[in-house]
Amino acid sequence: MKDPESMDVVVIGAGPAGLFAALRAGDLGARTALVTRDAFGGMAAHDGPVPVRTLAHAARLLRDARQLGRYGISVSEPVLDYSRLLTRVREVAGDVRAQAALREQIDAAGVTVHEHAGAARFVAPHTVETQGGLRLRAEKFILCSGGVSRRLPIPGFELTATHSDAWSLTAVPPSMLVVGGGATGAQVASIFTAFGTRVQLFEAGARILATEDEDVSTAVAESFRQAGMGVREAFGSIERFEKTPGGVRMVFSRDGVRDSAEAALVVVAVGWTADTSALNLAAAGVETDSRGFVRVDAQLRTSAPHIFAAGDVTGRMMLVPQALQDGFVAGSNAARTPMITVPDAVSPIGSFTDPEYAQAGLTEAKARQTHDVVVARVRFDSTTRTLIDGRTNGFCKLIVDRATRRILGCHVVGERAVDLVQTAAIAIAAGMPVDALARVPLSFPTYPGVLGRAAAIAARQLQVDVDRARLAELL
To answer: Which residues have C-beta within 8 Å of that of residue 21, sequence separation ≥ 6?
Structure first.
């Protein structure tokens, strides 16, 4: 057998974490190879945020088109051509891969890229081989293999689909069950509702979007219902899926009472697990945790001292921005010493549903556990820009520590929520007092101006409390 090619660092996986890890290691002068089973760009470009956001943009365009009549613009009712939309999805993914996926920088850094190499596996602690016959030996490895949709041990589960299967549809299904009310499930349900599908969203927990502020979950669920979506929270447990002439039936029960629901397509989005089955981690001495994710320390080192892991495979915060940060840290640590740690940073999170929702910092419930807080809330039906745009559904909620006046959290439901909360994340990360944010003359009328108004309300309330306390002392 041919001797393996020798490198300083081998990065397995070319998603966001892998791209940044390879670029960083290459920039530091390490002989670096980037190995990917499929195409450059990973899941984010081909089967995750980029394709899903493109579908969400199409849903937004449909919503905008249906509002044109309110502004005196006469057009015919918009009609979706799903096959043409999927062509556009592929075009966007290709453009991202070519223009925005760091390929030019990675090549300039001297990184050797092996695309379509097939699944990689360890054959020894310092050697991997791929299904395509590639063999690489390295002093250090960085695992960035990402994740896959979690499967359920339920009879008939093979009849269900994941969000990935939307790309293989030839037409919008007339009806759909979405099982799982987290970020992925909510987004799939929202997009296809906009496309005209009759959607029922099922969540086993007490509320959809369980990791969001409770007010956000309530508002999004209500908006979904107003849009015609069926939302079933705390629906019970699934017993089985079974084939029907018109699609798939889901049989479930709660408190001993059996029920069922049927649709042309069932999409299951109940979590994400590490994509490690092909890696043969035991041969390298890499341990996983009880959930199957690769165990790492603060420097992203695994149980094998020469192997690091970054991104979804670690099960930490499975989002693109955090994967990019992980990649930078892992690439730095694999290529040099002294070691650096993953920063404890504010992580804005949001989703392009209708309405959008987003958060940065602590939820109100979490903040109240350790802080005396002031909460300011601005409804979208009371702000100028939202009234102009006819997007009055939603709110901006700001949570502030009473003693320090620092912003602890921001939660938004409504138009441009994801963009708006980025400004709040910057303020939180900077430790900006709420009254300092209130004094920033944000442009008018804009969506960030809604945040400025919430800051002004919180600052005023804090000052009123101070003034009253001073008056009480004088009296």
So the answer is: 11, 142, 144, 308, 310, 326, 327, 328, 330, 331, 334
